[in-house]
User: Fold this.
Amino acid sequence: MRIAEEVTFGTSGLDRAGRLRPDEAARALLARTGAFRATPLWHGKLLIDGDGQVAWLPPDHAVFADTSSEVFLGLSEAGEGYAARDISDWPGDGQTRAEGFFDAGEQSHPALGGAFRFRELRGAMTILGRRDAELLSTAKAVLGWHRSHRFCSACGSASVSLEAGWQRKCPSCGASHFPRTDPVVIMLVTRGDNVLVGRSPGWPDGMYSLLAGFVEPGETIEAAVRREVMEEAGITVGAVRYLSSQPWPYPSSLMIGCAGDALDDAIRVDPAELEDAVWLTRSEVASVFQGIHPHVRAPRRGAIAGFLLANWLADRLD
Ligand SMILES: [Zn+2]
Assistant:
């Protein structure tokens, strides 16, 4: 798909500068010369400034006093370094933080003016520029991994961060651990001029999406597409082809968007997986995007399902 990387969190061409990860002296030199900026994440939330942009701050800013881990993200075209730091040990500003799918609350930090707010990436992802979107999706995934992988999975000892946040090492047994990326297939299954969409139990009213599921160990992408569609909707899929992918840091997935040709059209929903699945015609998908479909709401902005559906409708999957 020629426009594959126009998806939200698609690449911005960031130089991830892996050569600098083991080179602490080079990164320290960037910081000393002022060519280094960092942004804090708090429980996965990003810091937005008064202009609605990601706040990139000097690395010695007081907001970083509660830093528990850091990841070096790369270099700008001008050679400036970027890093992100987890400050989740900061107790917060007293506002309750909602656990679960989405926390609409915003927090302000005493070391910053009130215009600076911590916000969920889900709510901000479609307003970020391409570079900030790539930096923040990387930062959220890696810092989230540090928080959930503090102990060695081989022996249980506390592990330490290495390679500027791109590795953890166990001082007890010597095992090395690397940030996870969990592959998920998401499929645009079509039969003629119809596309298959479904909804899971508990989703908001009217929300439908493309079927999706985790790739299992020992499975190809194509096999995962066919298995998930058969399990969830009872549809046999023949040819499968890759379309586009999307880093999805909730917490650490890679969405692999595929097209699949359905070989039959009789839907048999597995109620343990889906509440409903339907075929939509092209004109119905058009009415969904116009917001006038009687039952199906427009897909969430920023997610690859909406990107694939919109480009299928516009005949831009080539
Ligand atoms: Zn160990």
Q: What stands out?
A: The longest strand covers residues 237-248. Helices lie at 24-32, 121-124, 130-148, 221-233, 282-289, 304-313. The mean pLDDT is 95. The pocket of zinc ion is lined by residues 152, 154-155, 157, 170, 172-173, 175 (CB under 6 Å).
